[in-house]
Amino acid sequence: KLSEQNKQLKSQVEALKVQNEFIVRRVENLENRSRRNNLIFRGLKYECATADYARIVRDFCVSHVGARAETWVNRAHALGKKIDNGPIIAQFPDDQDIQFITRNSRKLKGTRFVIHKDFAFDTRKRRSKLFRVFGELKKRVPGVRVSVELDRLIVNGQVFTLDGENGLVSKGEDGLRKIGNMFDENVMQAVRRSMCGEETEQERGGEGEVGQEQFQILDHCHH
Length: 223
Known about the structure:
Helices cover 45% and strands 17% of the residues. By secondary structure, the protein is an alpha+beta fold.
């Protein structure tokens, strides 16, 4: 009878784990939706003691990305510690402004400037690992078609995600092994090493999450 009770308890624990994971991902998804109109800017020159962050961001978008002069920056502030020339997070109410700026941020290639979207902490951690895999594949596999979409890695049409317990997976399979089958053992080992590396400051999101919550405007219509 005791063994039967243990089985029931284990079953209940597993069910609770699944339920908890679902809730955690649901909350993370809502947080990402709330951040969808935030952009983070790096490389801008300013003095934080006198900075008008919204104006700095708007002027930069107009002069360097070609945004319209009427671009509305609702709020903006330094991300993390207030230091001169540090990263700035800005909130744009107009979806069209967000789309235009992100689409035209390619104009900044080769400059010191970087614009990227704002994501929940766990999403950002997964993306940083996937971008390291992205970099290894681009470096080692000529002509590979690879991209990162939110927290999914697309390699030659195959979708890879990160599972907390199993690492890189693809359709329930071992993702590293699948990479090895798609390419070769050397590529698989390089990808494995890249995923074990430490995050850079930029991958971690600069100085962290300080102050970002004030930009979280939930939009339940976003899909």
